[in-house]
Specification:
Helix content is 28%, strand content 22%. The protein has 209 residues and is α/β, with parallel strands linked by helices. An 8-stranded parallel beta barrel has the order 1-2-3-4-5-6-7-8. A two-stranded antiparallel sheet has the order 9-10.
């Protein structure tokens, strides 16, 4: 199985150009679209400029926390491939998916196994399940082994304070996609050297003989 990756919280053009032009780019690139508490939040006008950069072989993901109609209308024509929805009910998630004809990453924040099992509420709606820590902008981890023995019916993405020195081989056993953000930063900003290290680790894990 190929382990895919997602680099989240991209907010500047230099970083984005480096990522999408990489020989082994991540499958997904995420942008914080409406959660202003995050230091990685990208205001709308800046987001429009940023997304003019050709995504090439990556998919662009809008990260949205319980979005209202205004932001959904403002971004509907931007070149997003997925909406990653936090704190969004199944009913609202389905309405968004239908209205905007968009693929959905359902983000479930986790502290215990009961939170994991909430994925069942989105079985007929989500395209990908994301299990994340409870911290939102604070990069809080959770026990990734909680999902280890569950047979999911679609791709699983994991986040939650993942670092570039993690044992990705272990994560590959329990997830299809690794979502990393703060682990690629130095002093709160994306660090190209850390991004390079991470993408090379993903490449080596997938293509080593």
């Amino acid at each position: 199985m190929i382990l895919k990756s997602k680099i989240c919280g991209v907010s500047d053009s230099a970083t984005l150009k480096y990522i999408v032009n990489h020989n082994y780019p991540p499958k997904f690139v995420g942008f914080i679209t409406n959660y202003q508490k995050s230091k990685r939040f990208v205001p709308l006008e800046k987001l429009k400029e940023l997304l003019k950069i050709d995504k090439k072989n990556s998919k662009y993901v809008s990260i949205l926390v319980n979005p209202d109609d205004q932001i959904l209308e403002q971004i509907k024509d931007l070149p997003f491939d997925y909406y990653q929805l936090y704190n969004c009910t199944p009913v609202k998630t389905e309405a968004i998916k239908r209205k905007y004809n968009i693929k959905i990453i359902t983000a479930l924040t986790v502290e215990n196994i009961d939170h994991i099992n909430n994925y069942k509420l989105y079985k007929d709606i989500a395209d990908i399940y994301l299990f994340d820590g409870k911290g939102y902008e604070k990069s809080v981890s959770f026990d990734h082994s909680l999902i280890k023995n569950i047979n999911f019916d679609k791709e699983v993405m994991i986040a939650g304070n993942i670092k570039i020195n993690e044992n990705l081989e272990n994560l590959k056993k329990i997830a299809d996609i690794i979502d990393i953000s703060g682990g690629l930063e130095t002093s709160g900003l994306k660090d190209i050297s850390k991004i390079e290290t991470f993408l090379q680790k993903i490449k080596n894990l997938n293509y080593e003989t």
